[in-house]
Structures are given as C-alpha cells and as structure tokens.
Amino acid sequence: MNQVSLIGRLARDPELREAGNGSKFVGFTLAVSEFSRDKEFTNFIPCVAWDKAAENMAKFLKKGSLIAVTGRISVRSNNTNGKYETIVNVNADRVQFLESKGSSNSSTTSSQSPQPDSNFDLDQNNGYGQQDQQPVGNLSNEDEIILSDDDSILWD
C-alpha cells in the first residue's frame, strides 16, 4: 500500500499552473515538524495537487497555512548528462484546510488565543466548557492498581 498522511504549513504561496494536457495543478512544499529528544526538526516535503484541489488551494491558501495532505509517494529517476537523480514527491489525493481563511500566521504562538471560527479549540466550538472538565491526573489508588494489572494482549 502506498499512502502517506502529513500535517504541516505551506512554505510559500500556492501558484496555480496548467499542464500541457490542460490539467491544472499546484506544486507546493509542505513544512512538517518532527520532534526528537526535545528538539524540533522540520522536513520540507515537495507535493503536487491537481484539478479542483489545486484551484481551491490557490484561491484560499497562502504561505504559512496549516493543511493536512493525504496522498501517494511518487519516486522517479532522471538521468541528466550522465548524472542520476531520484525525485521524490507526494501526489496529493486530498488536501484538507485546517484553519479558516485569514487565521493562518506563520508566527502563531500558543499564547495567542484561537480565532472563534478556527479548528484550534474544538472543545469550545462543540460546547464543551471548562466547568465540566476535571483533571485526568486524579486517579484513585484503586484505579491505579487496576491499570497496572492489565493483562491485555496488546502489551505482549
């Protein structure tokens, strides 16, 4: 199975282009963060979206927009003047916008409150208020014993 799912931010404004056969496409680079040992690494992954997805990206997105991409990895080789190179990119089957238009900001910090119509605070948007929430860390000793004696086959 060849399937990849990524969440990241656009590295530059999407630019709609037209292929030789008349199909519209957007080539874009997705900046995807990865964390390892308290360090953040960013991978810049080349992607391409076609037709309606490409048109919508060019119309509604800009540099720094947060999106989710589901697609397939495409690998091809090229021989130019005896020099071989391998080109890897993601053919986007689906592009999902994770922010409302205009709310993306590449310098967004966690101290800023989310826009009311964004996807950042789904609890608030779905009517789950702070008054109904209780801290998860308040387990009784009995609960801790039950959790530690779990004989689930998933842990074998």
Report what the structure shows.
By secondary structure, the chain is mainly beta. The protein has a domain at 4-101: OB fold (Dihydrolipoamide Acetyltransferase, E2P). Helices cover 14% and strands 42% of the residues. The chain has 3 helices and 6 strands. It has helices spanning 51-60, 122-125, 141-148, and strands at residues 4-10, 16-18, 24-36, 39-50, 66-80, 83-97. A 5-stranded mixed β-barrel has the order 1-3-4-6-5. A hairpin with a 2-residue loop joins strand 3 (24-36) and strand 4 (39-50). The longest helix is centred in the middle third of the chain and has 10 residues, at 51-60.
Offer a few descriptive terms.
disordered C terminus, 14% helix, single chain, OB fold (Dihydrolipoamide Acetyltransferase, E2P), 6 strands, 5-stranded mixed barrel, mainly beta, 156 residues
What's this model, at a glance?
The chain is mostly beta strands. 14% of the residues lie in helices and 42% in strands. A hairpin with a 2-residue loop joins strand 3 and strand 4.
